[in-house]
Amino acid sequence: MASSISSLSSQVKPSDQTKTWALEAEQEFRLEVDFNAAVILRLVSGTAEVFGAELGAGTSYHFSGQKAAVFTWHGCTLEIQGQCNVEYVAGETPMASYLNLHTVLEQQRANVPLLPTDSSTGSSSATSFGPNVMLIGPTDAGKTSLAKILLNYAYRHGHRPLFVNLDPAEGSIVMPGTVSAAPIEHIIDPEDELDSISLDKTGQVSTPLCYHYGFPAITENPKLYGLLTAKLAQSVQARLAQNHMARRAGCIIDTGGVIDPAHYDLLRDCITDLKVNIVVVLGHERLYSDMQKMYAQSGTVTVVKLAKSGGVVNRDKDFMRRCQLRTIRKYFYGSSPQAEYSPFSTIAYYQDLKIYRVEDSIAPTSALPIGLDRKVSETRIVPMEPNLGLIHSILSVSSLDATEDESQLLESNVAGFVYVSALDEKKAKKKMTLLAPFPGRLPRKYLLYSMFNWMEM
Ligand SMILES: Nc1ncnc2c1ncn2[C@@H]1O[C@H](COP(=O)(O)OP(=O)(O)OP(=O)(O)O)[C@@H](O)[C@H]1O
Is any ligand 1 atom within 6 A of the Cβ of residue 49? Predict the structure, then answer.
């Protein structure tokens, strides 16, 4: 097993200082903890929540490499042990407006009958669905945090909404470089990120509905991104069509900071394909105004503006990279340092694998010599010879069967991911060592290359 990917979790020492914080009603304690530091947080009295997930009295919550807020509706006392980078109490928060939004969503759910219109098939009329909410705004506007709050509040009211992640940078459900969707089957734990929703009760990963994009930014390949989000939306709609209660609970859709009007068509297509009925704009006046104009005549889409929380923190490249590495690590090792899983190692021969990558996009047509047209398609895949450069890469294992046409690769969902830990090209039969969260041979031979690799920092 590669030693470079062992656990790096930081610990709180018994000698670390403990501080007590008393919060009044509707105040929030904001904390930032470095990746190489850790704090333990305890609720001593009163009630409090972290992004909508209630804290248990006396329970120890561990935070490391996180920026978070502990909000109280009625007042509480907290105890913090360890070193925070930033810690303060804020009295001004947008939580009341976030709760109002949740109340509106609850009303929409209540308007959908508990039983499907046609109980023989389980189907119901096309208008019979709950709130499909898309959160848009610039990066670091608090979209993902609001998504967590809405999902946790819905769960606490007995609903199991679908979370749709259209932000490939974060890979918040399972892996960076993907777009994905998963139902909320448990509360998003106060100390966890959204990737915990793809973990079962024992902390082991299961792969949700997920499509391979391979890049961190939407702008890297908007055409491919549009193709994949359309495919994801189609699969989401197919699942919802079969499940009345899921349709009633609705979807919460997180997006990656699309604010450039040049990419509004991507937003518009996602809104149409995912049957979005509420667009929430966070922290961007122009985007709000443009969306309002776009949907002024729409009888189905409502655009609302909500304030960005003063607690939302800008995350630099280094912090984002570490967050991505943590998500990748969780996929292979499970969620908690206390009950850690080990990935399984498997040998695969080059001759048995087919690795593809999306064809490099080339210079825009305007930059080409006169008479030469743009020949490369951004949504075409090309075979890739395994080479030493693949080491430490994360490859998506396509669900496409070997008998199926490989042109379908990008449009097929991902069955899982493997990490390339070693390559051996000395022998006649060249081989690579792959790590996977499950034992046994690779279920499929088609692998897709992404720009993400995994080396602990
Ligand atoms: N009220 C708050 N107090 C402290 N930290 C917060 C608060 N709200 C959000 N954060 C933190 O700020 C960071 C950015 O927030 P978030 O991920 O929700 O933004 P985003 O709009 O989804 O960003 P991106 O589009 O880049 O994914 C996160 O680390 C989040 O935990």
Answer: no
Mean pLDDT throughout 422-440? 86
Residue 215 Cα to ligand 1 middle (Å): 21
Domain ranges in the chain are: 17-93, 95-306, 344-453
Contact 381, 360 (CB under 8 A): no
Ligand 1 atom closest to the Cα of residue 282 is: 21
For ligand 1, the distance from its centroid to the CA atom of residue 169, given in whole angstroms, is: 14
Q: Which atom of ligand 1 is nearest to the CA of 146?
A: 18
3-class secondary-structure state, position 219: helix
Lowest mean pLDDT among 58-72, 197-211, 403-417, 422-436: 197-211
Confidence band for 3, pLDDT divided at 50, 70 and 90:
very low
Residue 270: the pLDDT is: 97
From the CA of 161, how far away is ligand 1's center (Å)? 21
What is the best residue among 313, 316, 327 to mutate for testing ligand 1's pocket, by most ligand atoms within 8 Å of CB? Answer: 313
Q: Binding site: which residues?
A: 28, 67, 140-145
Find the range with the poorest average confidence among 188-192, 373-377, 420-424. 373-377
Can you tell me which atom of ligand 1 is nearest the CA of 93?
1
Q: What H or E segment, with its residue span, contains residue 267?
A: helix 264-273
Higher pLDDT, 455 or 42: 42
For 456, how many CA atoms within 13 A lie in the half-sphere containing its CB? 13
What is the residue-averaged pLDDT of the chain? 86
Which amino acid, residue 418? V
Beta pairing, strands 76-82 & 39-46: antiparallel
Using DSSP bridges, classify how beta strands 354-358 and 446-453 pair: parallel, antiparallel or unpaired.
Answer: parallel
User: What's the topology of domain 17-93?
Assistant: Jelly Rolls (2.60.120)
Write out the binding residues for ATP: 28, 67, 140-145
Q: Which CATH number fits domain 95-306: 3.40.50.2000, 3.40.50.300, 1.25.40.10, 3.30.300.130?
A: 3.40.50.300
Question: Which of 69-83, 184-198, 389-403, 431-445 is predicted least confidently?
Answer: 184-198
pLDDT at 90 over 60: yes
Atom 14, ligand 1: residue with shortest CA distance = 140
Could you tell me if 281 and 302 are in contact, meaning their C-beta atoms sit under 8 angstroms apart? no
Where does 344-453 sit in CATH, by number? 2.40.30.330
